[in-house]
Amino acid sequence: MPRRIFITGYGIISCIGNNIDENLSSLLRSKPGLGKIRHIDTLLRDELLVGEVSKTQDDLFAMAGIAPVEGYSRNALLGIIAAREASLQGRLNENPELKTGLISATTVGGMDRCELFYNDFLTNDTRNAHIDSYDCADSTERIASLLGIHDFITTISTACSSAANSIMLGARMIRTGRLDRVLAGGCESLTKFHLNGFNALKILDKDPCKPFDQQRAGINLGEGAAYLVLESEESLEKSGNEPLCELVGWGNACEAFHQTASSPDGTGAYLAMKKALDLSGLQAGDIDYVNAHGTGTDNNDLSEGRAIEKLFGERIPKISSTKPFTGHTTSAAGSTEAILSIFCLQHQVIWPNLNFREQISELSFSPVEKLLTNVPVNAVMSNSFGFGGNDTSLIFKKAGEKSKIVNRKS
Amino acid sequence: MAFINGIGLISPQNTIGSREFLSEVVEYTADYLKCIEPVYRTYIDPIQSRRMSRLIKMGISAAKISMAEAGLTMPDAIITGTGLGSVEDTEKILGEITKEERFLNPTPFIQSTYNTISSQVAIQLKCHNYNSTYVHRTFSFESGLIDGLMQIEEQTASHVLIGAIDEMTMNHLQITRRIGQWKMHPVSNMTLLENKTPGALAGEGAAFFVLGVEKTGTTYADLKDVKTCINFNGSFKPEMVLPSFLGNHGITMHDIDLVLLGTNGDHDFDPVYDDFARQFFPGKALGWYKHLCGEYHTATGFGLYIAAGVLKNQTYPGILHLNHVTPPRLKNILIYNHFRNVNHAFMLVQGV
Fold it and tell me: Is the reported ipTM for this assembly greater than 0.85?
């Protein structure tokens, strides 16, 4: 019997809230967080709509409980805030005998400061503290150091599926006995760098994004951080933590099609979902809700939609993209949306796909339009697909045998 | 554990082609050691490679060389470790957006994403299997190896393609010189240890390895295990890790025949290697390789090539010697690396 993986803590910061409660509250009120760019000095400021965390750099320092010093990127601060919330709930500071790892994800890394100080890097020594914090490992090491995690640390970058791959690696490291518990997720701050990059690819929507809509016109980029605590069953017995849910399936596949485009039939998406489903031991019909990658681009939504049709056939589950709430938080999207999906298991709700009006003509289904409450949700699938065709799918299930676990402990 | 069944390495040395192992060493006096690049059309369709950055071309070529050697056409997983990804493309964009924000060329942005190499290799091979990229300084390649070894253990893969790839540019060298990472002036790689100044000699490289469950005619060695250890304020103690790391494979420190150190000429940080060797491996043969490839986040890819080459060829060329001890046999090699005394890592490689 393979080791089971339970989620016992989570933490999040996004444009719809600075912690778990605020994010949940915004979702329950169907209140999106998109707006104009406030914290980045860019010519795109008035053109684009983004999911920016409302806090300034100084606010974030205060929230992270760190005295403002040179060397911290916005990305690292977002990561610290969300990771700390998750680690407190999962009580990672207790039971030091448990082998604990941090697997984080980011792609822009410390680019938010690097692009501000790049001319200094080239010409003088005034911003040297930020040179070391430009890479992807910086935020991970700062989080690990602050939280005292040292048994295993690494950073993943597979573009927009990065944080889903962190969760997947965490699960595998627990299952193979390398670790007892893992803090896994990702962080990504908005930068001029990738705002311009996505803009050059002409896949950004100037209006609120409309995933799975016939008239969809692109992405609203977002920022944030989200982390989950993964624990083995044996670890639960020691920590006494109450599981929020169980992670039962994960699958990673590659489109091998194009660097920035999805294949028309969604081969990678289908394979990732299929692998996750096969591993979970569930049937397609057991999935109550799919939190789709649903970026709102022409290409992704059709490709993902076709893959969903192929996997689920006639019985398509409830589907929505929550990116109209949070924006596309790129490397943090996998863990952000994993948490939003877990909310559905906990509160028996399904999030609406905001801004939807018209079904995609090539697809047989429409997403959920209005918030659904008091619906039975026992298993959810969360999709994250990235540039390079890096596709990952996760399946979470209600922690059905919770009482048994708690009993065994007492 | 997994067998190393194929290697493709593009490095500052002549590591492409069928030359004898380390038969001719390239000497440099330079700011950093630059890769000797192959004729790319041997490996990539020229129409496709036209828009590819140098790093991607190096990666695809190294991957194809390793697969050809192993006789593999479709890996069950493609994993890449890169500390910095495409530095050149990132610099192009930074140069543009910090001056004039408009009219950004999308190609460098697409290529600047760290997972580009893994995914470009997948596109070349039409490989829909597991694909991932690790980007954690000198843990990048090691994390990839750990992932690959796990895939084999989980029986989700029989053949894994794993890369270690990083590039250096003059611009990036100048920036990171500001924080003491590198020698401030050109130095000779052959007399690197006589230099006795702070900073390493920078380098770059693209190494790909085919790991397989089965020993074949092309097998170099058995990669037993890989471990990374973070050192926050002295939290890392080798004695807490090494005995179990080796013991899990029925080996003691006594059984190690050669310790391959990551010594890089940085007078501030090389003493960490010296102390390690003195404390744990007194009287053992000590070797090094970073004078041949330079220091970079995934330089242990070159290190693994050296260990595999030593074991396969059963030869320990003088250019690698760091002390005068002759190993009694060439069976167990421990690769030890650290980055600025924070990121420590071990690989255990065994002859077959």
Answer: yes
